[in-house]
Structures are given as structure tokens and as C-alpha cells.
Amino acid sequence: MRRGVLVQISMRWLLRACALIPCAAVLFLLGFLTVKGAPQLGSHLLFGDVPSLDALLGRRPVWDGLWPACAGTLYLVGLTMALALFPGVGCGLYLAEFAPARQAGRIRLAMDVLAGTPSIVMGLFGFTLILFLRHSVWPGANTSLLLSACCLALLVLPVIVTATCEALEAVPDSLRLTGAALGFTRRQLARRILLPAAGPGIWGGVLLATGRAAEDTAVIMLTGVVANAGLPGGLADKFEALPFSIYYTAAQYQNTDELLRGFGAALVLLLLSSALLFCARRMEKRFRQRWQGVA
């Protein structure tokens, strides 16, 4: 009996230690980036020698600051989510509520394969697609912001599909029975009851997809990102992005100051991703309050 109690206590402390390991790793990473990158934060890191207002309004180009990379990252994430959100939620809804069993199994298998595709393979797919279009259909085809967003949308699509499907499957059957008793069709039931009830879970998947789109480097390296491209003028233009700026600085720095700028860029990317996730969380909270009837 005493031996069993000791085993339980040992397992409890072992599990606590296992839980503390990832927390300690995250805290160490945040602390290291803060110590190295915080002193670099400021208008000079973002805008260089260009006045802040002129840089924000696009009056003067910024060549020695991170503002074009920050703007390019925001454009890229926004366009990626615009391309992936509707198909992802629609596919998840079809899987959970409308698809026959055999067809649902095939679609789930396709989503699993797509989810397991390395990001560098997705980048190679986009680059190969441009080569194919250039030699067959569209001679002027080139890598661009739109191509990067399309490849990233394919990369994050399984996250949104899986989150939507699981959120809908977690909705209590009593809501379905209530909708059927009220005379709702399957489409009305999905649009008016199931999707609002599963909204928080769907937004959770959107959060994960947003973070993945903001930090990925391998895809955009082969599909349109370049150094010193400036602010993107359109969907068919080259662009800058923070992940690539960090990679480029880490690979090409010549002195300690440039390396510290890379740490500053990493901290800016972390803050930008946190801001995007915070905004998404606020939207999720407002959605939940609206659904639950809370003012």
C-alpha cells in the first residue's frame, strides 16, 4: 500500500516536471529574445532614417528599416486568410454535416496528406507551377505576393478544415433536434444554429492558421519574397516579409550590429504575431458573447 502511494506521488511530480519543460522553454526563448532584441526596438529599426509619417504613408521608400517587411507580412497574412477561410470552413462543414461516409473518408485522407506536406515542398510546387505557366500558357508569369498567399493558403487549409469539422462534431445533438423540431432544413440548421454554436472552435483553428501563415519562411522563399523589395505595389509584385528578413540577416550579417538587428526583427515578428492573435481572440470573444446573448 505504501509502495503504491509512493508510485502515485512520483508519477504526479514527474508529470508536473513534464508540464514545466515546455513552459520553461517558452519563457527562456521569450527572455532571450527580449534581452537581445528589446534594446533595438525603436523608430530607427522600423523606418531607418526616413521620417515615420513619410514611411507609413508611402511617400518615401524605406531601405534600411523593417517597415516594408512588416507591411508585407500583414498583406501576406491577410490575403492568405482571405483565400483559405471560406474554403476551409466550407469543407469542414461539408465533412461534418453533408458528406457520405466513404467520400468523407477520402477527403479526410486528402487533408491528412496535405497537412503532412512540408512547407518547402509547397514552395517547390508554387515555383514549379510558375515555370509550367511560363513555358505553356502565360509567358509573363512570375513569382509574386499572390502566388505566396495561394501556396500558404493550401498549407494552412487543413488546419481550418480539421478545426471546423471537430467544432461542428462537438455541438450537442440537442441543438440539431431542436432545429429539426422547428422545421429547419439541413442548410438552415447549419447556417443558423450549428455554425454559430461552433464559432469559438472554428476561430481557434483560424488562430492557428494565422500564426502558421505569419511565421513560415520556406514557402515564400521560393514564391516571391526578396530582400529590399520595398512596399508591395500589387498582387503581382515581389514583397518583403519578416521571417525572410530574419533568415537573411542570420545568414548574411557582417558585424554584431547587424546580428542585433536580426534579434530585433525576431522580436518584432513575435510582437506582430501576438497582436494578430490578440485581435483574433477579441473577435472570438465578441462572437461568443453575441451567441450567448451577453452584452
Give the DSSP E fraction (strand runs of 2 or more residues): under 5%
Spans where pLDDT lies below 50 across 5 or more residues: none
- C-alpha end-to-end distance: 54 Å
Radius of gyration, in Å, reads 23 Å
> Mind telling me which CATH architecture of the largest domain this is?
Orthogonal Bundle
Number of helical stretches of at least 4 residues: 13
Shape: globular
Q: Helical amount among residues, as a percent range?
A: over 70%
Overall tally of structural domains:
2
CATH superfamily of the largest domain: MetI-like
Question: What's the mean pLDDT score?
Answer: 85
SSE ordering: HHHHHHHHHHHHH
Identify the CATH class of the largest domain.
Answer: Mainly Alpha
Number of strands: 0
Largest sheet: none
Give the secondary structure arrangement, pairings included.
Layout: H1 2-37, H2 43-47, H3 52-56, H4 67-98, H5 101-115, H6 119-136, H7 145-169, H8 173-181, H9 186-197, H10 199-215, H11 218-221, H12 242-252, H13 256-292
Helix pairs in contact: 1-13, 4-7, 4-10, 5-7, 6-7, 7-10, 8-9, 10-13, 12-13
Provide a concise account of the structure shown.
With 295 residues, the protein is an all-alpha fold. The chain is built from 13 helices and no strands.
Mind explaining what this structure looks like?
- The protein is mainly alpha-helical and 295 residues long.
- The protein folds into 2 domains: 1-40; 43-292, MetI-like fold.
- Helices cover 77% and strands 0% of the residues.
- It has helices at residues 2-37, 43-47, 52-56, 67-98, 101-115, 119-136, 145-169, 173-181, 186-197, 199-215, 218-221, 242-252, 256-292.
- The chain is globular and about 65 Å long.
- The N and C termini lie far apart (54 Å).
